[in-house]
Predict the structure of DUF423 domain-containing protein.
Amino acid sequence: MNKRIILTGALFGLIAVILGAFGAHGLENKVSEGSLDNWKTAVSYQFYHTFAILYLATFSRAKNGLINFSYWTFTVGILLFSGSLYLLSTREITGLTASFLGPITPIGGLLFILGWISLFVATIRHK
């Protein structure tokens, strides 16, 4: 068991539930449908990669560099991809005009892709 991986996954899962509920109940009729859809995308991808992080704990005894790389790319990917979408989704009510956030989202997506590739290779190499 890798405590760091499980704690990270549990924290991201908790936050995803809270933000999902906030989006469904707190943002309804306050932001556009498009912004609400972006919020839902952020929550969904956070959940997908939370489960991926928790799956990494099954490899925790392997001390595998590829698994560690997947852990970090999924973690930073959630922060960049989902985090930027959360901020972009609430621009209508926060007044945030951070144009730098647009390019951050695909960087987070690229990190997700790299994490999945790393997990794929680690699984092939695992004995």
Observations:
- Residues 3-125 form a domain with the Four Helix Bundle (Hemerythrin (Met), subunit A) fold (CATH 1.20.120).
